[in-house]
Amino acid sequence: MQRRAFVQSAVATAAALSVSPKSVFASPLGIPARRKGSDVEAVTGDGKPVTLTDAALEELRARLRGSLLLAGDEGYEDARLILNPSFDKRPALIAQPTGVADVRTAVDFARDNGGLLLAVKCGGHSFSGQSTCDRGMMIDLSRFRDVRVDPSHRRAWVTGGSLLGQVDHETMAFDLVTPLGTVSHTGVGGLVTGGGFGRLARRFGLSIDNLLAVDVVTADGQLRHASPDENQDLFWGVRGGGGNYGIVTSFEFQLHPMQRQVIAGAITFPIAKARDVLTMLGGYLPEAPDELNLGFTMVQPPGDAPGSVVVDVCYSGAAASVDRALAPVRAAGSTSEQIGPVDYVALQRSTDWQDPRAQGMYLKSGFVTDLRPELVNTIVERFRPDPRRLTVTFFQFGGGAISRVAPESTAFSQRDVLGNLLTAASWRFGVDDPTDHIAATRAYWTALEPFTHGFYVNDLELEATAAAIQANYRQNHERLVAVKNTYDPGNLFRLNANVKPTA
Fold first, then answer.
1. Domain end: 91, 110, 140, which one?
2. For the chain, which terminus, N or C, has the lower number of CB atoms within 10 Å?
3. pTM
């Protein structure tokens, strides 16, 4: 499925309505422009105030090949922002590394100055806004992007700040691919360390299942190589443990041969068919070919436009087999179909502008292991659209190769999931009071949540409690804590689905 992508007409409407940079999540804190030669007030990870002296900041600036940005500096206002304008935060300082040495220098500075509140930004897609922070330090990896491909050995090396589109562009030039996400401006670092769902995951596994090795700058500022043969515990933890263990500066991926052209598009149904479509998907997906990736979106745009159900399609197998693979979907009673040959790299870019994180919105999500009738009925019967907002419920499906990996093999333990269920609302910032829209989404989720079993850490919500995060890691949590105790006992890297150290 086109992950978190709405039907085009609905998203275009919502995007047009999202005109103000202010939101319910905007920070009340402000940092005035720094006077040259003055100190900067910041906070540590546990909220304690700390003063960064002018001398310390100038020493940091001198040691960086990349930029150090403070409030008032050119580039600061752009660098501090992430994709979702709901989060309007102002770091005390922003480091923009251009290489591993800069990353190590920045991490050392954060640790040595009281353990600064530390946010790491790659693509800036964090749903919970944790790739930025107020009064802490942001390490912005946007100047640390490079992809190198070895086609003869089917390997790719990707630096920590790179975006998915760069990887697809370079690897597909050799008719090779590694499974990544569905929005080309997503950061590799955040997506992959959380697991990495995408259009090819049912065929080739999650992104983490295609990792051969990583280089990580851990909390002590050391660069560590981790693989099945070296620092195995760190390699295990990075694959699903998110940003808990440091900053990955290099990913080594396994590549797979694949033709550039896939069969992709959308099959549309009237919204009255939602129950039939979900029932069909629940029965078909466990036996569908690995090459077939499907997504489900039930959407009601604002205003009086009709709602619809869309099944997104990406078939990466032999073109001669696509009709057989899609027959159960078509039999559910579609009203229109736009399916055909598409360049895979173009497909990966096709929904970039639809990513809901570029709009002000509120989202809830959780994993489900089946589409039992009770869940299907609840999804359909409790769906409560409102003409003042965009209302959407959608699925990102798993199974296939994802499910054939043991849950203890990587930190990502949710191998039994049929799909990731998400629901969201979007409204007009600065015009509508978001209270009712958020309350409606929460009420709907209250009915859906009993059918879920954990959540995707890349969809971490602000409301997630420490107990919920611990439970989400299932049987892997104790081992994750042990890895945390080894590599980040002071919890410097805490802005994530945080595994709290006990050391």
1. 140
2. C
3. 0.91
